[in-house]
Amino acid sequence: MNAIDTFVEGFSRVEPIVRAVVEGLNADQLAFRLDDEANTIGWLVWHLSRVQDDHIADVSGDEQLWTAKGWAERFALPFTPDATGYDQTPDEVSSVRASEDDLLDYFEEVHTHTVSYLRSLADSDLDRVVDNSFVPAVTLGVRLMSVLADELQHAGQAAFVRGAMLRDDEQ
Prior knowledge:
Blueprint: H1 3-22, H2 27-30, H3 41-60, H4 65-68, H5 71-75, H6 90-94, H7 100-119, E1 129-131, E2 138-139, H8 140-170
Antiparallel strand pairs: 1-2
Helix pairs in contact: 1-7, 1-8, 3-7, 3-8
């Protein structure tokens, strides 16, 4: 297995987690919060999708699917189209209300684009510098690993929130 195959495998592990977290939940459940400042399942999945879309578009030179494919209009969130969720307040988090279908369809389109981009790369491409604003400069491989780690972390957080919500519903 080469490095590109490893990245494809890693990003492909996020998809079933996201699907298992979101499937079968209504908009109110997707907006459930453990407390007034906690992230919701919907926000976590929207955020991880937005970050992946934003970062992969940046390194691939493509336009983000969020704007290119009309997702910003479909979600109709009260943010600028370039918002990805970084530094959002609890009130902004609570304003992310989306359906199961919208969250899964957007995530799936982003995931498909990411895997397609990854399959277009060679291992040697991973050494390309994509961000000089850090010391040391960030390579494509480091950026991809950063995005993958963020994806897995937020998918796991969303799974935790779902489990806590459903456990609370059963009691």
